[in-house]
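Example S7 (structure tokens).
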């Protein structure tokens, strides 16, 4: 949700204290790496400046070359807003993205390449353009009379949405009233099943080659926006819906964006029926580059995530300032963020443009209460050195001050063209890390364990399976650091192994009770234990 950041930016994340030597039961599924893409800003196939489905299909080879295995899209359905949240018709593809056939062809091509596709869904709200609103407003005899949540018996007062809003202004002058859907309605429950089922198996042949592999549930809550009419949705709506859909396709995956970003999301995994949640608290810790926070959050989520469930590990998304902006484009911190994003555990998700260090930050009220505030974090993907050329999806060009202060700059080193052939670039580092992860099972399915040391700037952990183990050590500071790392709590077979350098230029030497590690400024070292 776009506006959740208005309050979440002020949430104080309260840290939980756990042991630094705990082990994880949470494991990744294969070597999956998700690419979270805002398709409107990715690649334009027909010259209208709108990123589209055919443009994404054209660039699948780019994603595969990077090492991506799965793609997560923002909503595709029809909406008056550029981000496509707050739908006017859940059953239509936004025509600026293309047609339903374009979507189906994209899905088939993704599957042909051995990749997966996940769709972002938010069916909790509709705009005044939606047939449910138009037909039921003031009409008690409407067949949609119980689809929309009304606050009066005459159905003249549609209920508010998040933050008690009744309408939202768009960057382009769009202004629509929006209301909450009645998720307790049996009709709505059945409609959601049929909607998700369609995107699971569009032609109903049971083969799923044209269907989504899973869904991201936006703004998921047990008690939606604290409305008394919409309590206990985990048991009455979400868990039954997900269970029913998995009977259709047992391989489907559901990931919740927990509405409370300070939550670990364990109740979503235990009661909500989802397979995964986003590791928000770990993300904030990594962005802070604070060792104590990172250790606490990693120990917490990897210890207590229920078996068979997942944490999606990320450092940026469409609702947040871009990672490179948060760390002030520090080259060393950019690479530390990449290493932790991809190697620490769970299933990693990379936000489009993160791999080339795209920037974008704004205060969430800079342009008033409007979705324009999110544009700086959702700008056109930078394919070219000149930030112009075939496929550049600058759909917001010349539309307001967000364009006048665009982050797109020529010859600034932030583009695929400038980085792809440079072995020392951020893009090349992401590609190297993804390959490292793919080729070492300790990283894509291993348990996690923090390796304690007494240096506040050096963070170390081990990932291990029954057969493989790997140690990662990062220096969070701008000065060389040396510290003794305890390996006393590592299992015996790992402790007795030899350390082989896989990445980086640090050193690791046996010392009493452990290993003495030395790392350069912002150094990252990866060892395989043989």
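Recovered sequence:
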């Amino acid at each position: 949700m776009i506006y959740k950041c208005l309050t979440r930016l002020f949430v104080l994340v309260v840290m939980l204290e756990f042991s630094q030597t705990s082990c994880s039961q949470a494991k990744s599924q294969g070597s999956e790496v998700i690419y979270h893409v805002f398709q409107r800003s990715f690649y334009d196939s027909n010259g209208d400046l709108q990123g589209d489905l055919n443009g994404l299909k054209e660039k699948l080879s780019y994603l595969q070359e990077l090492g991506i295995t799965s793609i997560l899209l923002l909503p595709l359905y029809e909406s008056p807003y550029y981000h496509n949240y707050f739908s006017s018709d859940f059953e239509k593809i936004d025509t600026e993205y293309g047609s339903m056939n374009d979507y189906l062809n994209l899905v088939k091509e993704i599957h042909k390449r051995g990749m997966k596709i996940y769709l972002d869904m938010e069916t909790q709200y509709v705009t005044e353009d939606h047939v449910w609103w138009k037909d039921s407003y003031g009409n008690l005899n409407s067949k949609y009379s119980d689809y929309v949540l009304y606050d009066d018996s005459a159905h003249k007062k549609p209920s508010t949405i998040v933050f008690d809003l009744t309408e939202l202004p768009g960057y382009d002058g769009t202004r629509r009233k929006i209301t909450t859907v009645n998720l307790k309605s049996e009709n709505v429950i059945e409609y959601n099943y049929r909607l998700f089922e369609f995107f699971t198996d569009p032609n109903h042949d049971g083969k799923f080659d044209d269907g989504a592999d899973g869904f991201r549930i936006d703004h998921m809550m047990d008690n939606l926006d604290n409305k008394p009419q919409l309590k206990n949705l985990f048991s009455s709506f979400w868990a039954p819906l997900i269970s029913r859909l998995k009977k259709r396709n047992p391989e489907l995956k559901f990931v919740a964006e927990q509405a409370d970003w300070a939550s670990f999301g364990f109740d979503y995994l235990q009661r909500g029926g989802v397979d995964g949640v986003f590791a928000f608290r770990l993300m904030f810790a990594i962005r802070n580059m604070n060792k104590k926070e990172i250790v606490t959050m990693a120990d917490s989520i990897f210890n207590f995530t229920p078996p068979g469930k997942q944490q999606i590990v990320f450092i940026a998304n469409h609702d947040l300032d871009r990672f490179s902006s948060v760390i002030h484009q520090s080259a060393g911190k950019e690479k530390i963020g990449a290493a932790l994003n991809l190697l620490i555990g769970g299933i990693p998700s990379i936000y489009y443009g993160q791999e080339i260090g795209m920037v974008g930050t704004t205060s969430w009220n800079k342009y008033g209460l409007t979705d324009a505030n999110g544009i700086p974090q959702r700008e056109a993907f930078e394919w070219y050195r000149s930030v112009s050329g075939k496929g550049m999806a600058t759909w917001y060009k010349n539309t307001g001050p967000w364009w006048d202060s665009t982050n797109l700059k020529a010859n600034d080193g932030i583009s695929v063209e400038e980085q792809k052939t440079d072995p020392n670039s951020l893009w090349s580092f992401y590609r190297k890390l993804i390959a490292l992860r793919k080729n070492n099972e300790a990283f894509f399915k291993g348990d996690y364990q923090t390796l304690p040391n007494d240096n506040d700037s050096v963070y170390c952990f081990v990932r291990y399976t029954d057969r493989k183990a790997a140690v990662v050590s990062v220096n969070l500071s701008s000065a060389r650091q040396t510290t003794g790392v305890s390996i006393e709590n590592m299992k015996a077979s790992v402790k007795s192994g030899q350390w082989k350098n896989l990445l980086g230029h640090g050193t690791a030497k046996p010392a009493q009770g452990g290993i003495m590690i030395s790392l350069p400024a912002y150094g990252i070292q990866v060892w395989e234990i043989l």
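Notes on this example. The first strand starts at residue 34 and ends at 37.
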